[in-house]
Every structure is written in C-alpha cells, then in structure tokens.
Specification:
This protein is mainly beta. 6% of the residues lie in helices and 42% in strands.
Length: 705
C-alpha cells in the first residue's frame, strides 16, 4: 500500500495484492483539490458603488473617446473551489493465452463558483447625447463628443448586476474489460470495451436558467420561447439534470505482429468518450452564465437618439438591484442561454493507427506510422437558435429601420409584440423583429455539439540511443486536418456564418500544419580523458577535451487562415467576401523576410487581394470558405544550440562551462496578412514587430564535487 501526494493539491492511495499466481488486484483512490482565484479584491459592499468607493466601468464611443477605465476586467470578488475524487479497481487475470484486465473507474467532481465581475456598474458615454437632436440629420452623431457627454454627466446607457454562487456536481462510472490474446508466439490480439456512464451535472439549488422554445412567454405577448429552470417549480423544466446517454460504449481493437527479431508491426482502433456535453460544466461556463438571470440586474439600453436613457448620473444613483425571483419572462430584451435534457451526449474521438518499428544498425530505432483521428459532437455554435433567416436579406437596408423612431412602422412593419421597443430601445430594429425569437437579443447555446474534426498524418521518427558520444531524436509529420470548428471551448468558438448553409464551414483547420520537422540531439567530441583522442588529464586533454554540443531544431509550416469583411445583419457580427476562383492565393513562401530584416520595406503583399471581392452590401452573403489551405500565417523556424566544456580538477572535482543560444540564427516571425477584405491593406503583412523572441544567449559555470 502506498500513500503519496499527487501533482497539485491532492493525494493518491494505491493498493496491490497478488491473490493468486495468475491473479493480481490493484485498487486506488485519489483526490485533487483547488482553490482558484479566491479573493475579495476591494472588500466591497454593494452600497460602496453609490458612495464612489468602487469606480464603475466607463466606456466611450465615437469621436473624442478617451481610454476606457474603471472596474472592467477587474473582478471584485471570486470564490472558486474545486474537488475531484477518483476510485479505480483493476483485476489482472492470466489464463492460458489470455490476459484479462477487468475493472472500473468512478469519478465525482465538485465546483462551488461565484465570480463577481459587474457589481461596480457600467456607464457608456456616446457622441449621440451631445449631437444634433434629429437622428435623421446626416450630421447626427458626427458632431457630438463622447467626452463632452462625460463632462456633462449624461450617459447614453447604463447597467449593473450582481452574481450568485452555483454549486455544481457530476459523476461518472466506467466499467471496462480488456483481453490480450497471444494467438501465436509472434501475434498478439487486443480486444476490449469501456462503458462510460456519464451522469450530467446538477446544481444543488437548481439555479440553472435556460431557454425553452415550446413555452409561451408572458413578458413578450405570449410568443413562444420563454425562460425555464431546473427543478419542479411552476414554469420549471420538471427535471434536475439532462438525461444519461447509456450508449457510450468505446471499443478497443489492436494487434502486434513480430515480422522478424528486429521488426514489428502494430495497429489499433479505439473510441474514447470525452469530457463534454451536459456532463461537463467547466468549459461550458455554467457557473458564469447559466444563473445570471436570477441575480439582481439593472439595465437602461441606449435610445439610439440624443436623449439619455439614464438621465444625469449626478442626480440618479445607480441602484443595487435585488435578486430576481424566477419567472418565465426572464431575459426578455437581453441574452438567454440554451440547454436541453437531451444534451447529455458526450463528444467522442475515433482513433486509429498502424505503425512499423525497425531496429537499424548503430543503435538506431526507426518508426513509421499512419495515424488518424475523427472527433464528433464538439462544441461549434453552428446552429444558432435565433439567427435571421437569409430570405429576409432581400429587404436590404430596411432591416436597419428602427421601431423606436417610428421609421419601421412607417415602412409597413409591425411590432412582434407590444413591449418590443421598451425591451430593446434603439436596438428595436426590423432585423431584430424578424429573428425566430425576437424577444431575445441573443440565444447562446454552450451545449450545441455539431462540431467535427478529421485528422490524418504520416509520421516518421528516428531515434539513436546514446552510443559513441551521439544521441538524437528526429521526427517528421506530414498531416492534414479538416474541421468545421477550431475551438473545444464552447464559450469561445466563433460559430458559422449561416446555419442554413454550413457547407463552407467544413474547411482546412486553423490548427492545420502540413509539415513539421523536429530534431534534437547531443554529441560528445571523441577528445579528452576517456576518449579516443588526447586521452589524458594533462594540458592537451584539458584544453582540447571535454566538449559536448546539443541542439533543438524546430521547423513548422504556418497555420491556415481565412478572410472576412465588415458588416453583417447576423448575430455573430461578421461576414465573408466572395471568392474569385480565377485568381490564385498562396502564402506558402514569405519570400520578403530578408527585406523585412534589412528594414527595406515595412509592408509585404502576401497574396493577391483580387482573389476575393467584397460583397455589394452587408445584406449579401459571400461564398468564401472559413479557411483556405493556400492562405497561411508565417512558418515557424527556430534553432537552439548549446556547447558544454568540462574541466577536471582532480579529487572528483569537475567544472562545467555551458553556453546556450536560443534562436541562434535570429529567425524573425512576422505578423500574418491582413485578412479583412474591407481594408485597404487586405492581403498585406504589415511590420509591427516580430512575434517570436530575438536571439538570446546565456553562459554559466558550475563546479560538481
């Protein structure tokens, strides 16, 4: 039995017992705990905001806009406690040609999280409030001053909200069985299966609020689409967690065959279920996002005119809003998050490989492999619940008409529900009124899992064990990776342009690097004491001997990139241009690096901007793909070298002088090209400093005795 500290704050207890000559039992229990970012930065009390002790977040727009300041990005309080417990039991049983591993793994995790980020409040000052009063005037906005609005104390909009602690829990039970069958002295077959019973997260008080598309919303004229909540209260969902998906079976199949006493071929296939879906609450930001509608919140949206929605901040105290009781009308006029009891499915990875291993002369080991990986049900944001249907783009600029100033009504458009203008203020546009659920500004689904990744590679590796003073490891990877999402973090994935046409999202990945070469090694010169030349500890041995060199070489192709243009009526806020297929694009070679280095130019045109054309208006969807294989960021080249010299002083005393150089050839990695087709510098790499470190060296001397 062993009891030892784990990496981090935790402990592992293991137990091994040989029950019989062919049966060994292993059991272990471990826990890992973390107290992360637990602080009360200002020892704040809510009343201190009104007293001016805590400065609110102040932002500006338009001309005369100073730098934002205040509590933005500075959390006032954070309590984040985490605990994970794992119990594992394995029975190793050998019978004839079979070696069985039978066991199970149990995991239980806890997180108590409260992040107070917005209790300081927020005021936004705009040039609109000091502009000409008529929004139809062509000079509206342009003649105002955001800083003047600040001096007058008239914010354009204001908001403040508190937070609450969510106490999240989940658990997993995963039994498994694996059989390694030695069919012949040269052939071994591996067969196994793991069953991941992943119980989705719960919250101790069921304070998880989310969107229900099938319920009438009393705060939005009974339009379908309202808030619901975990639990069994009136208006609640009627369940405390998502359903368990019982079909998470992961097979494992493999083989190893000895072709000769110096060559082996191996292969395998497996399915592994990943930490995701409704089982996972960390990367899905449940504690940060899904309880927000229950906390105290005060909002005054911009009117879109020169009239302040808040009034003078000298005479109005930004109130400390009390907690909000649950009701189905929560979130109207703002964002709501989505969740569904069927979200319990987990992402999974299909992995396969076949490799050949060969022992070569001079203690060199060769391995060549084909490796593949396909991942399914990754977070993607490709199916945005509240995205405007592209059929409405035919309305053109009418989509920007406002119900607040009456221009939308004058053009014949009707309010989607009676209090629409009150809920959205200056954002009560025709475009907002035509989305599937106009009562919400955005419906964010952390659990939308339509993402997929496909990776294949050929990998070759040469390794020489340390003999005759030389050891090295050299590896080359030729790969290609396609996906429709390039982030595994649901809150930060960018999503797609148009959920009604997702074909252009399946493209070369942002992480694709088709060629990667890495070489490392060390070499001791055969000179000096114990070596072939000058084998003495005298003058010649001391001067010429004891030298050792080492190196780490890294050469990686640039990652793939895409293009976009300004302006879009879609919620994700960007668009893509059209691709002109008659014009080729390529950033495969940054052939002006030398001119950059010599300072001859500050701009290099990396691809022909005529390869893309900006769409006629923001109401036209371009056909460009998300990424292109020929449109890449600069490659990464780096060489690190060192030299070491030993001095022998006798009586077991050795002095070591070592010199290290990083980026020894002073490689310069520049910015990628401007990929905004709306810019005048589209396709250019503009020198703004280098993205890697310049050449650096260090020297040290030590004595060992």
């Amino acid at each position: 039995m062993k009891f030892e500290p784990a990496v981090g704050s935790g402990y592992i207890l293991t137990y091994d017992k040989t029950v019989h000559s062919n049966l060994v039992v292993t059991a272990g229990i471990g826990w890992f705990g973390e107290i992360n970012n637990q602080f009360n930065q200002t020892k704040f009390d809510p009343s201190e905001v009104a007293q001016g002790v805590i400065p609110p977040n102040i932002t500006f727009d338009g001309q005369h806009a100073p730098t934002s300041w205040g509590t933005s990005g500075a959390w006032l309080q954070s309590v984040n406690r985490k605990l994970g417990i794992a119990i594992v039991n394995n029975w190793l049983w050998t019978k004839g040609r079979n070696t069985f591993n039978i066991g199970a793994e149990f995991r239980r995790t806890y997180q108590d999280d409260n992040e107070e980020q917005t209790a300081g409040g927020h005021f936004s000052f705009s040039q609109r409030t000091t502009s000409v009063p008529n929004p139809a005037d062509p000079n509206f906005g342009s003649e105002g001053s955001a800083f003047a609005s600040f001096l007058l104390g008239i914010p354009d909009e204001a908001n403040r909200s508190n937070s609450q602690e969510l106490r999240l829990r989940n658990l997993d039970l995963s039994p498994y069985i694996q059989d390694d069958i030695k069919l012949t002295p040269k052939l071994t077959l591996n067969l196994g299966v793991r069953w991941d019973i992943m119980v989705p997260f719960t919250e101790n008080s069921n304070n998880v609020v989310f969107f229900n598309p099938a319920t009438a919303n009393p705060a939005a004229g009974n339009l379908l689409g309202a808030a619901t909540k975990l639990g069994n209260c009136p208006g609640c969902a009627g369940y405390n967690r998502a359903d368990i998906h019982w079909n998470h079976f992961g097979p494992r199949i493999g083989f190893a065959y000895q072709i000769s006493n110096k060559m082996v071929v191996q292969g395998g296939f497996s399915v592994a279920f990943l930490d995701g879906g409704a089982y996972e609450y960390g990367t899905n930001k449940v504690a940060v996002n899904y309880g927000n509608l229950l906390v105290g919140s005060f909002t005054r949206n911009s009117t879109g005119t020169n009239a302040s929605s808040y009034g003078s901040w000298d005479t109005n105290v930004l109130p400390n809003p009390p907690a909000t009781p649950f009701n189905p009308g929560l979130g109207v006029g703002t964002q709501i998050n989505a969740f569904n009891r069927n979200d319990g499915y987990a992402p999974y990875s299909e992995q396969w490989n076949i490799n050949l291993q060969r022992e070569l002369p001079w203690q060199i080991f060769l391995q060549a492999a084909w490796v593949g990986n396909r991942e399914v049900h990754l977070p993607s944001q490709l199916n945005r619940i509240d995205q405007l249907n592209p059929s409405y783009l035919s309305l053109g600029s009418q989509l920007g008409l406002s119900f607040a100033d009456g221009s939308a009504q004058a053009a014949g458009f009707n309010l989607p529900y009676p209090t629409f203008v009150n809920d959205f203020g200056g954002s009560a546009t025709v475009a907002q009124s035509l989305v599937p659920y106009p009562q919400y500004s955005y419906i964010f689904n952390n659990f939308e899992g339509s993402g997929s990744v496909y990776y294949q590679s050929a990998q070759v590796q040469l390794e020489k064990r340390f003999t005759n003073g030389l050891a090295f490891l050299a590896a080359y990877t030729l790969s290609r990776q396609y996906d429709n999402t390039s982030s595994g973090f649901s809150s930060f994935t960018s999503g797609g342009i148009n959920k009604y046409n997702q074909g252009v999202e399946w493209a070369i990945s942002n992480s694709d690097q088709p060629n990667v070469v890495k070489v490392s090694g060390t070499y001791e010169l055969p000179i000096g004491p114990g070596k072939a030349l000058f084998n003495n500890k005298g003058v010649t041995g001391q001067v010429f001997g004891g030298w050792q060199m080492g190196w780490i070489l890294d050469y990686e192709a640039g990652t793939a990139n895409g293009v976009y243009e300004n302006g879009s009526p879609f919620p994700n806020g960007f668009n893509r241009p059209n691709r002109n297929h008659s014009v080729s694009i390529s950033t495969a070679s940054y052939n002006r690096e030398r001119d950059y280095f010599l300072g001859k130019i500050g701009v290099a045109q990396m691809f022909n901007p005529a390869a893309f054309s900006v769409t006629p208006s923001q109401y036209v969807i371009g056909d460009a793909q998300r990424n292109y294989p020929g449109l890449r960021n600069p490659a990464f080249y780096n060489e690190d070298l060192n030299a070491r010299k030993r001095f022998y002083f006798g009586a077991g005393i050795v002095g070591i002088l070592q010199i290290d150089y990083f980026n020894v050839f002073n490689r310069t990695i520049f910015n990628g090209p401007d990929n905004n087709a709306s810019d005048g510098t589209f396709g250019q790499a503009i020198y703004q400093g280098q993205n890697n470190s310049t050449r650096q060296g260090q020297a040290g001397f030590r004595i060992e005795f």
